[in-house]
């Protein structure tokens, strides 16, 4: 007897939209939080320290930051209306804003002036998002592969500093710190290679947990700060006063906004490549709009501008867990850490060398993903190799020589001190120069062979 086909064919769910079991969500989500925690709290620590805030105010900045990090991550992953890229993207404070904010805070009006400029910058990002969305055609694999490679390489010094004990540590570079980082790296690799599938996907979390278990008896960390932390802490709007709006502060923060939009574009495209859900002009604009909204919330709730966190791009590539609900769970954990300072103090007790060992794998994975994208590009009979070479070189200058632009104006430093934005802008310009503009007769990169830019 003939069988009838089902009336409603079942469409397979894309891995990005899959919802793993609750226990997996919790483990994968916590792994993402641990990967980005040190970077997330660094910006309020640096800015608050430069402004000589009291320990109580510093603690307030950190809990406010974690709360808005979580909300921003939920907006980006879950999304509503035209806000949120709906990919596994963690949000955190951008380092591009640190220098301008320190200058504004110490010379131009304190925290209220910082928050006024942050709110304006966030609104500007929301308005500019559709414009950036239309620029996606200038990001062929030649450019995106180069940018992803630069993101990975520029993060490696962060992992190196963690492995050595953390910037400013009294025992920075001590053999015991590097030994602990090496041990964590070995655990992560061992788990990824030999453990069952689920454990191999939380190799970073296992490595951090085992590393912490070793670090405590050897005196690498203590949990003294946990007892001092409050159980509950709620960030109220405009805690440090009504925002003030200074023209010079707003201009410098608008430059930061353009830099963070460039960086976020690179990160969103990278995650789109890793998850096999390509970012389209509309979804890019939605992701940038979420950045802008989060930045406005940052100005209201006593924290700073937000952007996609490159640290977690590597984790998506390494674990091959592509569900956005995993990262949404991480956002929920961050909200809890922001509301429960005692929990935040427990996470903060993870020593830097433990994070460094895990970071080496994650950030190296980002760079390797860039190489994988570049493998799709045709390098024969054209100037694409030059585009990659010069872009990586320009992107690495501020990473290898952090003071190289110290004599330049502040706006120039804001753009070029970020290796990611410097390399990204260089790659876009060189791709246009060699692959889109009419060249000399018979030149390798002439416009007569446009495929070189887009394969």
How does this structure look, described?
- The protein has helices at residues 22-50, 55-77, 98-107, 110-133, 141-163, 175-194, 197-201, 203-215, 224-228, 247-275, 281-300, 310-319, 324-339, 341-348, 352-374, 384-400, 410-416, 419-435, 451-454, and strands spanning 91-93, 306-308.
- Helix 1 (22-50) packs across helix 2.
- By secondary structure, it is mainly α.
- The chain has 19 helices and 2 strands.
- The protein starts with 21 loop residues before the first helix and ends with a helix.
- The longest helix has 29 residues, at 22-50.
Low-confidence stretches: 440-455
Percentage of residues in helical conformation:
55-70%
Which range does the strand content fall in?
Answer: under 5%
Biggest beta sheet attributes: 2 strands, antiparallel
- Write down the Rg: 22 Å
Distance between the termini: 50 Å
Strand order of the largest sheet: 1-2
- Give the structural class: mainly alpha
Overall pLDDT, averaged?
Answer: 82
Number of helices: 19
Beta-strand segment tally: 2
Shape: globular
Helix-strand sequence = HHEHHHHHHHHHEHHHHHHHH
Give the quaternary arrangement of the chains: single chain
